[in-house]
Amino acid sequence: MPKPNVQLLLTGNELMTGDIVDSNSAMIAQQLKELGLEISRKVTVADDITTLINEINHLAEQADILIINGGLGPTIDDLTAEALAKATKVNLTEHKDALIHLKSWCKKRDVKLNTPNLKQTLLPQNCTIIPNKDGSAVGFKVNHLACDIYCTPGVPRELKTMLAEQITHDIAKYHPTKLITDTTRLQVFGLGESTLQKMIDEQLPTWPKSIELGFRAGMPLLEVKLTTSCEEGHRIKPIWCAKLEKIIGDHIIATIKDTPLTLAKHLLLKLQEDKLKITTAESCTGGMIASLLTKEAGASSSFEAGFVTYSNEMKTELLAVTQQSLSQHGAVSREVVIEMAKGALKRSSADFAIAVSGIAGPDGGTKEKPVGTVWLAWGHKSNLKTVGLLIPLSRDYFQKYVANIGLDLVRRELINSTQTAHYITERKFS
């Protein structure tokens, strides 16, 4: 059975003017890919009834599946239902199930049902309702010119739920395909795309064509995707995934099951599992490590206190860093970060510490310690380790990267990693 032709119609003046950046089409494409389907054409139009009607007819003539996104709301510029009714030559009628849904939605939110809201119940005659548990406007489905047309809300959260819980199941039922796509996603820290690709080229030169390898760069984590859409690919993917995991090693943070977790969250989960606590002592990162930790729900069970000691005076007063160490070695040194870590551990009830002191720039560097120099101390109170790195990047990127390196170093300690991180191999100066 050939794969169905899937096309996408996005509607909205805000999309055309750039006031809203289109992320919905990517979401739709990703969900369809799980069914082994790809979008063959995507069209974006303004809120104009004539244009909408023409595009609906044009796309439906070619496609087996057409997904229309946007234009289901209560305002005058929400035209999807009207355009589809005119394209299919049926009347707009008040849909009983859409009205029940809207009344229930208003009641739950203690919102008065008004005339503009009622517009969302006027749908093409004989259409099939697609429930929307998150929003006021239901989606709906019609068949036009032998094409199944799915009308979906423009609000990303509502669209995501509708796709996952309704539309993909409906498509799989009425448009079955043997080419089911399976994707394995790995979260990686400390390796860039080009570095990882080079490692794969050198160590896995016979990578099979039946396994599509993809990368999604991010800060701080890189996502590596292994996608298969055929029986051969499905069969051999576990073997090649294991080979890839071996060369990436402990740079792999996790295999992504649902929503990706942050590096801070992964560390907190491990600390909670081991019933351990952590503290931070920060200079050049200005509290960013503590901020990354406390952004995560439940952080208080493993993190009680952090110390931001930007000046030498505060390093001494709050963390008992000695004047001798500051004078002899400078604030950016192995000796000082060890004392910062010990001071933070002493003033808290933590088991582990991260301490950082560096030169974030753009000024403040010297020949001996250029901008981008940073020292980190980390580990258990009975076993502190240190490393000096040179990360000559912009101030913002430097701070984010160093903060996440600190988190990763402790993560590696907790999993008893014996592998040297790539960022140490590449950037270590002492």
How many helices in DSSP terms? 16
Please give the share of residues in helix.
Answer: 40-55%
- Class inferred from helices and paired strands: alpha/beta
CATH superfamily of the largest domain: MoaB/Mog-like domain
Report the strand count.
Answer: 17
Beta-strand residue fraction:
15-25%
Taken from the alpha-carbon principal axes, the silhouette is elongated
Distance between the termini: 62 Å
What does this structure look like?
With 430 residues, the chain is an alpha/beta fold. The protein has three domains: 6-174, Molybdenum Cofactor Biosythetic Enzyme, Chain A; 182-255, Alpha-Beta Plaits (2-Layer Sandwich); 263-427, Alpha-Beta Complex (Maf protein). Helix content is 41%, strand content 22%. It is built from 16 helices and 17 strands. The chain has helices at residues 13-17, 24-33, 49-62, 80-88, 96-108, 115-118, 156-174, 193-203, 231-248, 263-273, 288-294, 312-319, 323-329, 334-347, 395-414, 422-427; strands at 6-11, 39-45, 65-69, 92-94, 122-124, 128-130, 139-144, 147-152, 182-188, 212-216, 222-228, 252-255, 278-282, 303-308, 352-358, 373-380, 383-390. The protein has a six-stranded mixed β-sheet with strand order 2-1-3-8-7-6, with helices on both faces. A five-stranded mixed β-sheet has the order 14-13-15-16-17, with helices on both faces. A hairpin with an 8-residue loop joins strand 6 (128-130) and strand 7 (139-144). Helix 2 (24-33) runs parallel beside helix 7, helix 3 packs across helix 4 and helix 10 (263-273) runs parallel beside helix 15 (395-414). The longest helix has 20 residues, at 395-414.
